Structures are given as structure tokens and as C-alpha cells.
Amino acid sequence: MMRTIDNETIDQVLNYDKMLEALYKIFISKFTMPVRHHHFYNTPDSAENALILMPAWTDKYLGCKQVIVAPKNAEQHLPAIHALYTLFNAETGVPLAQMDATKLTSVRTACASALAAKYLARENAENLLVIGSGSVAYHLAQAHSSVRNYKHIEVWARNSDKAQALLESLKEQGFTNVSLANDLQEAIQKADVISSATLSKEPIIKGEWLKPGVHLDLIGSHTPKTREADDEVIRRSTIYADSREGALHETGELAIPIASGLLDPKDVQADLVELCKANKLARKNEEEITLFKSAGLAIEDLAAALMVYEAVAE
């Protein structure tokens, strides 16, 4: 019998440390992950919506995230993105569970970035800068704090009210070392790790601001025409990605520099699977600037959904 798992249960089960472990285990396992499917359709009022299907499977389980992107929803005060996750028995095809994928996506995204930072950020990193105030940004400080012991965390967002709300949320969760960054340039210049999840269409992170040894975790800009970091960031950084196939083509962060000839696809040093299988610090020295570009992977959703399903089944 298929279980319908509610958001309250998902909230109780999802745990940053356990999610990091679940991601690591699935990345070093045998899995199949086809390229995500995009289908575009027009609504009666001529808006173009998108249906995105993200399947992945192992020997035992098959899962698929179904995402609807409806840009005009803001006019009706509705979220622009709605997502469901369906989990099946891979051998029999029997549906096992269905759940809202919104929280799953936010937590697995933050934890995938933290997993990359485990291998790329300096082990003595002390200052974390979180840029953004959306659903993913609400999990970045917690996820990154699972892999490094930060003495100070700063939050910056274009919308000061939303930045303040994120700050208050972190304080309620027990973070005492957090503060608002009033000047983005100053915050970037002193950060050891920068985790950015914004909808910015133009670069807000300048390469000339980066100090030696910083690690950049770039989550926003999920279209080929938008980016959070400028060319100088790319020029100064050693590049990593969650997957070459997705990040090189689907994100402007890498697609734009490739199109201009600044970046060669071969410049991407490793993907997240390779980092996990090596399971050791990948940076060459304390001065190296590292960059991890996240495009989001279906196998991450499967890991998160399995974590919830197995907890409920127990």
C-alpha cells in the first residue's frame, strides 16, 4: 500500500548529518540517473509553464520528482514552483510513497553543497557567508556547519526584511554566531566559505573581492543565461560541479564562460561522485580558490526520499 507522507513527518525526519551521510552513500553506490526531462506548455492566458521530470533508480528503488514551474503564480500570491516525489519498488513497480518535494529539495540541495565543501573548503575555515533568503538559504548555515566549525556566520540578501527573517530563524535554532552583512563586498572579502542561493540574473560576486583560500558554493542561476559570479571568479577558481552533464549546459555560471572561450569543459576537476569516491580533501593548498557549482541532481532527491520513507517504514 502506497504511503502519503505529510510535511510534518518530513520535517521530523530530515536531519542534516543523516542527509549528508545518505548523500555520500548513494553517490558511491551503483545508480542510474537519466538527464532530466523538460516539457513546456502554454496556459489559457498564454503563460509558458514547464514540467520537469527527474528520475533516478538503484537496484531496489526508483523515484521521480515531478516539478511544475509556473512563473505567473506570483500574480495570484502562489509559489512559482510546486513539486511532488513518487517512490517505487524498482523490481515490481509497486508505488511505495508520495510526498511533497519542496522541503526535500531544499534540504538535499544545501547538504549536497555542504558535502562538496567537506572536500573543498579549508579545514580551518572560520567565516561563512550565506547569500540569499529563499527556501534553500534557510538550510545552508545548518548544512555547512555540519562539516566545518564556523566561528562566525553572516547573512546577506537584497531584501533586508527577508535577510532579517532568516537571521531570526537561525537564532531561534540556537545559532549565536550569526549576524547581518550590510555590505556584500566587505562580507565577501573576509569570508572563508561563500554559499550563494539567489535568483540573480547578473553577477553579484566579483572575482576581485575574493581572498586567497576561499571556497565558493554557487547554487543559484539554474538557467543557461543567468549567473551569480563574474568572469574573474571563474578565472581565479579551480572548478568542481555536482555533475558535468548538468552544470556545464544548464547553468550560466559555467555555460556563459564556456561559450565565450574563457572556460574549457575539461577544466572541471571533478564531480560530486568523484569527490565522494576519493573521500579526501581535494584542494591543493591553503591559497587555492575553489568553486563548486550545483545544478541539482535527481539522485539527491532519491536519497532524501528514501531517508524519509525508511524512517516512516521503521
From TrEMBL:
SUPFAM superfamilies: NAD(P)-binding Rossmann-fold domains. InterPro entries: NAD(P)-bd_dom_sf, ODC_Mu_crystall, ODC_N. This is Ornithine cyclodeaminase. It comes from Sphingobacterium mizutaii NBRC 14946 = DSM 11724.
